[in-house]
Design goal:
This protein is of the alpha/beta class and 343 residues long. It has twelve helices and twelve strands. It has helices at residues 11-23, 62-69, 84-89, 91-112, 146-165, 187-196, 216-229, 246-257, 282-288, 296-309, 311-318, 321-336; strands at residues 2-6, 27-32, 52-56, 74-77, 116-122, 169-174, 176-178, 201-204, 210-215, 235-238, 243-245, 264-267. Strands 3-2-1-4-5-6-10 form a seven-stranded parallel beta sheet, with helices on both faces. Strands 7-9-11 form a three-stranded mixed beta sheet. Strand 5, helix 5 (146-165) and strand 6 form a beta-alpha-beta unit. Helix 1 crosses helix 7 (216-229) and helix 2 packs across helix 4. It is globular and about 55 Å long. It binds nicotinamide-adenine-dinucleotide and thymidine-5'-diphosphate (TYD). Residues 83-84, 176, 186-187, 190, 202-204, 209, 211, 246, 270 line the site of thymidine-5'-diphosphate (TYD). Thymidine-5'-diphosphate binds at residues 83-84, 176, 186-187, 190, 202-204, 209, 211, 246, 270.
């Protein structure tokens, strides 16, 4: 079948496009705007594959969406502004892509008569947890960041297109991903790359915030199941029952890298910083038969090895003027006021 993957030049989208071409006979159309965090090079190995088409375009641009959707049977919508920190200073971009862009894709998918639509959402729409409990699919949406709010808005639009127009759409809500091709603005690659350069590692607050981690390849397998077997209108949480406080993650990375904990710096916290995420994946395990294949410990070790092997990949990013400007705006002041022990 012909499938449109949006945001295929980002972290998870790249892994998904590679998987889809490897494991199916599908034709894959990748619609990606190529924002500052994207990387066409992630897909260099399949650029010449006759089953693969790249279209540079914005999901919020109706003409671009229409062109991409011609003859398509399925859509998997990964395209998004995805970084909480950026959403604090530029919420408008998140609204435009994540809400308006999803609406345009939904309308154009209906028009094109697509048979399946999968919306890639996030556990962050549920808000933050205390020490107990986990997110399940029936919880109300309580987003705390503009990023999470925009993803929640998109989820509600998807739901309305199922109920009102009968679109066969399914929503997945996954926890924090890690693995190959993750852009270094996110915690794990940022810490690996900084540690390799013996540079200070900016841990927000006291490092006690807990995230629930999953290897990107386990996520991509779950998305395929949601696409192929997911019921219309259903929401599936995706998570590997692998919670860890941020400080635990960073210390594990330092151990794999053979670098000292003296690199740790405790910096000013993120405003509205969600304290804990925890996914209950019972529904996707029970209804779609999904199970994660990688433990956090082995997944982190493999990921460290990937960043060691792919210096070319991240050094090219470090040399981009947009990256330097971003890092400086986000961290210069924070690192200047950093402490070597938690606040
Ligand atoms: P990413 O930021 O690495 O990649 C996003 C991609 O979307 C980029 O290639 C970018 O160019 C593209 N894009 C952005 N705006 C676009 C637009 N208007 N039109 C077309 N393309 C556009 O993101 P990611 O980490 O790969 O996340 C992918 C999806 O998964 C997102 O929807 C995100 O909300 C969701 N998600 C991510 C995580 C995570 O831990 N990274 C966890 C749960 C859910
Ligand atoms: P991030 O990778 O931005 O994902 P999200 O905010 O979507 O969970 O951050 C993961 C956690 O790591 C989050 O609690 C914030 C924290 N963090 C730091 O402590 N320092 C950093 O430099 C970054 C980017 C994140």
């Amino acid at each position: 079948m012909r499938i449109v993957v949006t945001g295929g030049c980002g972290f998870i989208g790249s892994n998904y496009v590679l998987r889809r071409l490897r494991t199916t006979e599908d034709e894959v159309v990748n619609l990606d705007k190529l924002t500052d965090v994207s990387n066409r090079a992630n897909l260099a190995e399949i650029e010449a594959d006759p089953r693969y088409t790249f279209l540079q375009g914005d999901i919020a641009d109706r003409e671009a969406a229409r062109r991409a959707l011609e003859g398509a049977e399925a859509v998997v919508n990964f395209a998004a502004e995805s970084h909480v920190d950026r959403s604090i200073t530029d919420a408008g971009a998140f609204y435009k892509t994540n809400v308006e862009g999803t609406l345009v894709l939904l309308e154009e998918s209906l028009r094109a008569g697509v048979r399946r639509f999968v919306q890639i959402s996030t556990d962050e729409v549920y808000g933050s947890l205390g020490a107990e409990g986990s997110f399940h699919e029936e919880l109300p949406l309580r987003p705390n960041s503009p990023y999470a709010a925009s993803k929640g808005g998109a989820d509600l639009l998807v739901r309305s297109f199922v109920k009102t127009h009968g679109l066969s759409a399914t929503i997945t809500r996954c926890c924090n991903n890690y693995g190959p091709f993750q852009f270094p603005e996110k915690l794990i690659p940022l810490m690996i790359i900084r540690a390799l350069g013996d540079s200070p590692l900016p841990v927000y607050g006291d490092g006690s915030n807990v995230r629930d981690w999953i290897h990107v390849k386990d996520h991509c397998r779950a998305v395929d199941l949601a696409l192929e077997k997911g019921a219309p209108g259903e929401i599936y949480n995706i998570g590997a029952r692998s919670e860890m406080p941020n400080l635990g993650i960073v210390k594990t990375l330092l151990r794999h890298l053979g670098k000292p904990e003296t690199l740790l710096r405790f910096v000013e916290d993120r405003p509205g910083h969600d304290w804990r995420y925890s996914i209950d994946p019972t529904k996707i395990e029970r209804d779609l038969g999904w199970r994660p294949e990688r433990s956090l410990e082995e997944g982190l070790e493999d990921t460290v090895r990937w960043y060691l092997d792919r210096r070319d990949w991240w050094e090219a990013i470090m040399n981009r003027p947009a990256w330097r400007a971003y890092f400086s705006a986000m961290y210069d002041e924070r690192l200047a006021g950093a402490r070597t022990t938690p606040r």
